[in-house]
Amino acid sequence: MDQILDHRQIADEMEIFVLDAEVGAGLPLWLPNGSAIREALERYMKELEQKGGYQRVHSPHIAKAALYQRSGHLAKFGNEMFPPIELPSGEEKMYLRPMNCPHHHKIFAAKMRSYRDLPIRLAEYGQVYRFENSGALRGLSRVRSLCQNDAHIYVQPEKAFEEILKVLNLHEQVYRDLGLVDHHYRLSLHDPSQFHLYQGQKSDWRVAEDFLKKALQHLNLKFVEVAGEAAFYGPKIDVQMEMAGDREESVASLQLDICSAENFQLSYRDGAGNDVRPWVIHRAPLGSHERFVALLLEKFQGRLPLWLAPVQLAILPMPGAREEDNKRHAEHLADQARAVGARVSLDLSSGSLNKRMRFVRRFRPGFIVVVGEKECDSSEIVVRGRDSEKIISLKDWKCFFRESLAGPVQS
Ligand SMILES: [Zn+2]
After folding, report:
1. Model pLDDT for residues 119-144, shown as the tens digit of each residue
2. Separation of CA 258 and ligand 1 centre (Å)
3. Cα separation, 140 vs 17, whole angstroms
4. Selecting from 1.10.287.180, 3.40.630.30, 3.40.50.800, 1.25.40.180, what CATH number does the domain 313-404 have?
5. 360 and 345 in contact (C-beta within 8 Å)?
């Protein structure tokens, strides 16, 4: 078996991100190739979420201390947050946000809600900041700034089961589409002997935990049960991805929050005209871009599914007597492939073909095309895929890339 490379080495070869001492530890700068992966994932997820009835929102990366006092973050996770930003002239200090939830709760609270409007699903690719110990930082998998595939779903408590089924189905579809079949779920429940550590009513906890367990069983999903690992505001389900070398990585967490609505005074009007607290589902099937891209790079050893590959097609014109003709033809082929959305690397530098071939392979392209005299005079092109070669006629060139590079079909 080939050696399994760490995501940092693969990312370095593929030019995914860099860290810079003057920017700061744990604050990755995403390079064009890394950004291409992020954007392909976002496009895919936004389309799925749109079909699932989610609405997109945007919110600032900072907020006043009062928000995190209300949410409980300052009391419970204050030491994992960046120190406050002090403002002049007696203004209240502000914090970089460690989570998106409080901002989304405020969006829910911004208008009157009726039970007929629920569930309300607010989604955001939200940037959050965590003051991780510098010794714990590691490539993209442990960082101080991360962008979450976040959403909060406000639901009537009695309808939460149905919604959890939908959320779990969404998780399953995403992992299936990405070819991440080796995973299981971990159902984290409260510890009944330590009930004082949790917020909320015992009866609500029983119902919420039952919903999560029944949903996992209903969908026949593989899961283990762990007592004492629940969040203080509700039980949760973690997604555990099985990695090389018997390792397991937590990529996502789905929480059924039975307490935040009380803290934030969130309510909706029920059919009888009473104001009722909703339950909130926190979910992020792809976790954060940072950890998820690290996981994908390791899982596929850089050979990402074609629709995610940062370089989908690499074109190398041959040196030699007709170098200029080769370059012109290569440019034409590149333009045609770009016209149907392909991410193309066109290497117009001089130098030996072998050397340039070795260089471009670091990016794990989906296809490589060499353009020489023969190709310039022919109506066909040899396309080298990762495992096999194909001869494509020029008239099918665009169509070939349009079809091979299409993302998962969501119909
Ligand atoms: Zn949340």
Report:
1. 999 999 999 999 999 999 999 999 99
2. 12
3. 8
4. 3.40.50.800
5. yes
Q: What's the gap in Å between 254 CA and the centre of ligand 1?
A: 9
Fold category of 7-61+97-300 in CATH: BirA Bifunctional Protein; domain 2 (3.30.930)
366 CA distance to ligand 1 middle (Å) = 36
Element at 252 (helix H, strand E): strand 248-257
Identify the burial level of 106 via C-beta atoms within 10 angstroms of its C-beta, where 0-12 means exposed, 13-18 middle and 19 or more buried: middle
Sequence-separated (6 or more) residues with CB below 8 Å from residue 324: none
- Residue 284: predicted pLDDT: 97
* pTM of full prediction above 0.85: yes
> What pLDDT score does 346 carry?
95
Cα(125) to ligand 1 centroid in Å equals: 12
| Per-residue model confidence (pLDDT) at position 377 | 85
Cα of 12 to ligand 1 centre, how many Å? 32
* Token pair 């006629």: residue: 393
What's the Rg (C-alpha) of the chain? 25
Bridge partner residues of 280 (DSSP): 154, 257
Residue type, 392: I
CA 191–ligand 1 middle distance (angstroms)? 22
Which sequence spans correspond to the domains of the chain?
7-61+97-300, 313-404
Q: Is 256 helix (H, G, I), strand (E, B) or coil?
A: strand
326 alpha carbon – ligand 1 mean position (Å): 54
Distance 251 CA to ligand 1 centre (A): 15
Structure tokens given for 328: 């012109």
pLDDT at 110: 97
Report the amino acid identity of residue 354.
N
Given CA atoms 97, 101, 104, 110 in this order, what sign does their dihedral have? Answer: negative
Instruction: For residue 262, give the nearest of 201, 206, 203, 212 by alpha carbon.
Output: 201
Which amino acid appears at position 297 of this protein?
L
pLDDT the model gives residue 183: 95
CA of 300 to the centre of ligand 1 (A): 29
> Residue 197 C-alpha to ligand 1 middle, in angstroms?
19
CA of 282 to the centre of ligand 1 (A): 5
Phi first, then psi: give them for residue 377, nearest 5 degrees. Answer: -95, 0
Q: How far is CA 176 from CA 163, 173, 285, 409, in A?
A: 20, 5, 12, 12
Burial of 329 (0-12, 13-18, 19+ CB in 10 A): buried
Within the chain, which residues score under 50 in pLDDT? none
